[in-house]
Write a structure and sequence with these properties.
By secondary structure, this protein is α+β, with helices and mostly antiparallel strands. The chain contains 5 helices and 4 strands, in the order ααααββαββ. The structure holds zinc ion (ZN). Residues 59, 61-62, 65, 75, 77-78 line the site of zinc ion.
Length: 188
């Protein structure tokens, strides 16, 4: 905002303040139209003064960054950072990566730290998805486990396989999870 804009906008806003002070139940329509015109003038001045888009998030660091509707401040960048922090609280710190490429007799692939990834078998209990077995280090093993559960006499309505790595990702769903109302105890 340049100096001329600042002066004009300040004056327009002060005029609106005066209108507010003078407002009573007897203020005639002609005066209200005048107020309306002054508000429009102030809005136009504001439109000219403001540069850049309206913020898409409530994050002071990334006001125009990508949006995560589920984040309290709507900021995807900060939410990703917070998620990583929560994960490292649970799993311990991430293994440090070596910056200089040293030759290894085990080959390049083994130079990388072992990723901590697991496959979680979950079942639909009529209300929510819940873990139904030990998280596996091997996807195939987890799928075999779910297949065995589905063949069991008391199989759930649906099962799913969730990949836990840098985030949780549903890989596959078996059956249809339908929300079931909880039966009231004792029928009247
Ligand atoms: Zn942010």
């Amino acid at each position: 905002m340049n100096h001329a804009q600042l002066t004009a906008l300040g004056r327009a806003l002060r005029v609106l303040g005066e209108h507010g002070d003078a407002l009573t139940g007897d203020t005639p329509d002609t005066k209200l139209h005048e107020v309306k015109a002054d508000i429009k003038r102030a809005l136009n001045l504001l439109d000219d003064s403001v540069s850049g888009a309206a913020p898409s998030t409530r994050c002071p660091e990334h006001p125009n960054g990508p949006v995560d509707e589920n984040a309290p401040d709507l900021c995807l960048l900060c939410e990703t950072r917070r998620r990583a922090a929560r994960r490292s609280e649970i799993n311990g710190p991430e293994p440090a990566y070596s910056a200089d490429p040293k030759p290894s007799r085990y080959g390049v692939r083994e130079d990388r730290p072992q990723p901590q990834q697991r496959w979680l078998p979950e079942l639909w209990n009529g209300q929510v998805w819940q873990l139904c077995g030990t998280p596996r280090r091997d996807r195939h093993e987890a799928e075999l486990y779910i297949a065995a559960q589905r063949r069991g006499p008391r199989a759930a309505m649906a099962y799913r396989l969730v990949h836990e790595f840098t985030d949780y990702e549903v890989l596959r769903v078996w059956g249809t999870p339908v929300r079931v109302d909880i039966e009231p105890l004792g029928n009247l």
